[in-house]
Amino acid sequence: MRFSERVQSLPPYLFAEIERKVAARRAAGVDIISLGIGDPDLPTPANIVAALQHAAADPVNHQYPSNRGTAAFRTAVAGYYERRFGVRIDPETEVIPLLGAKEGVAHIGMTLLDQGDVCLAADPGYPVYTTGPLLADGTAVALPLKPELGFQPDLEHVEPSALAKAKMVFCSYPNNPTGAVIEDDFFTRLTAFAEEHDIVVVHDNAYADITFEGYVAPSFLQTPGAKDVGVELFSLSKSYNMTGWRAGAIVGNPEVVDAFWRLKTNMDSGMFGALQAACVEALGGPQESVAEMCRVYRRRRDLLIAALRDIGLRAEPPKGTIYLWVPVPEGHTSASFAGLVLEQADVIVSPGAAYGPSGEGYVRLSLTVPDARLEEAVRRIEERVKF
Ligand SMILES: Cc1ncc(COP(=O)(O)O)c(C=O)c1O
Which of 87, 84, 90, 126 is closest to 108 using CA atoms? Predict the structure, then answer.
């Protein structure tokens, strides 16, 4: 069999490798705790599950849905954006459902890039920021996030030859994997940068509501002029513990949303109607569970930070996301240190280099394991990890 160069050029999927390692060690009888993958352990709130159950029984949802989404879904997303961010979204033209933000990240390149076109991709970043453009026959050029700039890119010094060919840029705050959040005028500068260079901004807001200590994350779209230059990918996965449900939305510039819709009509047949009804309940229903979940993550964050500091690592508590981004000790690479933690403590952490070249020198730890397991991981790290 002969496969496309496109598929052959894809790097191995990071989490698949981690999953294989976990499976192999577990098969050998070792009790492994994985802090590698960011998949919330807490259940989806009961009101959302009940909405799905109810809507699943309605025959109207048993037929093909529309790719544009139901009016109720689009209105619920617009209502959420208005209440949460003060952003006006036209439910008719400025929002359609996504089968998870990942679908948007993977496919948006196909609406914006031709061969030779460049996507500036936050580095370190969600790995699909690099593979999505590749699948569109474009080129992803790393846009390094600088620790000294609070893990923002230096927009003044983007490599000129890449900038000349750039048609889109991926970034995301609260940020996976660094945990960085926006507290300054970065989105204003990003909007001006996009206007000046005719680049579409794709802001991935997958962690919008996972924040701590009173910090409230903005939407890129609340920046004046942002809707003229870009879109936001919104996800229900993390805010409502719905990673398994595959639910999100692309929101913002109507021309980009329409082009994405045209592409999508050729790729899938939309989001299950009952799931859209559940999303309406998630976005418009009680939000206490979101605050409660943030309290759980914050407690876990502080436990883990204390353990990492105890063993001599320079760990800083992030104001958002479900991750800790921790510099590895001197003499180690991100992979060697992740290997050491696995060998000594039977705990999986992700090597930072898996998120791009600028992730070298860090490991990422996820807060999405149940409290008792996290406490066990903390105990093992404190007692066993020596470097
Ligand atoms: C930055 C970022 N974007 C997108 C996603 C995928 O989100 P979804 O589950 O909505 O596809 C993730 C998942 O971990 C992520 O970290």
Answer: 126
Q: How close is the Cα of 337 to the center of ligand 1, in Å?
A: 25
Residue 205's H or E segment, with its range, is: strand 200-205
From CA 33, how far away is CA 67, in angstroms rounded? 39
Q: Which atom of ligand 1 is nearest to the CA of 235?
A: 10
Q: Which residues pair with 202 in a beta bridge?
A: 170, 231
Positions in the chain short of pLDDT 50:
none
| Nearest of 211, 14, 294 to residue 126 by alpha carbon | 14
- pLDDT attached to residue 141: 98
Ligand 1, pocket-test mutation among 15, 18, 102, most atoms within 8 A of CB: 102
| Distance of CA 331 from the midpoint of ligand 1 (Å) | 32
Interval between CA 75 and ligand 1 midpoint (Å): 23
pLDDT at 21: 74
User: Which atom of ligand 1 is least distant from the CA of 248?
Assistant: 10
Q: What's the one-letter identity of residue 271?
A: M
Nearest to 318 by CA among 334, 337, 304: 304
Q: Check: CB of residue 58 under 8 Å from CB of residue 274.
A: yes
Q: Which helix (H) or strand (E) holds 251?
A: strand 248-252
Helix axis angle for 371-384 and 288-310, nearest 10°, is 10
Cα–Cα distance measured from residue 104 to residue 168, given in angstroms and rounded to the nearest whole number? 13
Q: What is the rounded distance in angstroms from the CA atom of residue 132 to the CA atom of residue 113?
A: 10
